[in-house]
Specification:
single chain, 126 residues, mainly alpha, two-stranded antiparallel sheet, 10% strand
């Protein structure tokens, strides 16, 4: 770790002028990716433990919203009524009901989350 921090604080030299680096490791350093991976191993270990603790073990982490399913079922029934109804006032009321039910159904989420799944990707470049 001491070697890593010395490398981070070393800065770089360009055309005889020394520059301090406020953040990160200088570009082109051959050991920078290796040292960064060694240093970030602690983060990897922590994230693996955190994911095991927090993530859901079930394969499915969401289910169909029952309200959405009920509204879809009612829509199907109304559409069957519409097909069997001849021209007239009853048909207009069924169409209004279908339009209102579709509008309400579109405000609902189709699925409800029942769990959490976390993915962790770490990338270290020089």
């Amino acid at each position: 770790m001491d070697l890593y921090w010395k490398l981070v604080r070393a800065g770089y030299l360009e055309k005889g002028v020394s520059y301090d680096v406020k953040l990160g490791v200088p570009q082109g350093c051959l050991v920078a990716p290796l040292l960064s991976n060694i240093y970030l191993n602690e983060l990897d270990t922590y994230m693996a433990e955190y994911i095991d603790k927090v993530s859901s073990k079930e394969k499915l982490i969401s289910k169909i919203n029952p309200k959405m399913a009920n509204m879809s079922k009612k829509l199907g029934e109304l559409q069957e009524q519409l097909l069997s109804t001849k021209q007239g006032v009853g048909r207009k009321e069924i169409l209004k009901s279908i339009k209102l039910l579709r509008k309400n159904r579109n405000t609902l989420p189709s699925r409800i989350r029942t769990g959490v799944r976390i993915h962790y990707v770490r990338y270290a470049d020089d």
